[in-house]
Amino acid sequence: MFKGMYHGKQCHVADIATVLSRAWAAGVDRIIVTGGSLEESREALAIAETDGRLFCTVGVHPTRCKEFEESGDPEKHFQALLSLAKEGIQKGKVVAVGECGLDYDRLHFCPEEIQKKYFEKQFELAHITKLPMFLHMREAAADFCEIVEKNKDRFTAGVTHSFTGSMDDCNKLLSFDNMYIGINGCSLKTTENLDVVKGIPAERMMIETDSPYCEIKNTHAGIGFVKSTWPSKKKEKYDQECIVKGRNEPCLVRQVLEVVAGCKGINDVGALSKTLYHNTCRVFFPHDLDSAADALLVGVNSS
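and the corresponding structure tokens:
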């Protein structure tokens, strides 16, 4: 979509540079580009190498796990992921294994057993590389938590992103040390969703856009808390000064922050954003960002 392609049709010029400019102008500090397959992880690393503020993940999404077996040699496929991750770590770009996990909402893409097998396999990737994990859990909390429990000593930390589960699911995840809950527009659709978000401690939460997906729509329960808006136009009437209607962008992480603050009744949005940023640094940038994140928090704590 950031190349202007929608369902195989070119609707406008590639505009990733414009999208990134808008993100930096909106106060976004760093962006993690997600890999969802071996090929996509290669592409994510190539994108991350174009800017010092871009980083990426290496891994296989649950709905794509058939690629291990379709490659003809699952172990060779795994080794290719491992060598890509190592290359990216050396370049200072790969900060997590993922996106991996379980998605029982879309079993037509990949059966349950294959998803489970290769979710478990990717803990090996995290164990060898000492990377944290960027995790996906949809309609699969019991199996997901069972696999995480079995492998909890094989990864340093993780975030279960795009969380849409129940408070029960949430509590199961929070029972794992160093597991955070990732919130985006999909997490803020219903009043039930907002009640769950309200109950997640800010110290165990991260926010994201998952762009180009998961935007906050006008029909979402959280829309009333949104204060920051950008002009938008349909993709057919592309204008680089506007965001594309229906396509999410990194700058819109600000809206996720506003909804989280609103439903938690937090007035100091700045302090909340620093806490969430600190959580993200703790997991994905422990070496070079802890001191910067701690410095940011000093002002908040003293006030």
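(Above: one complete record from the training split.) The two ends are 43 Å apart (CA to CA).
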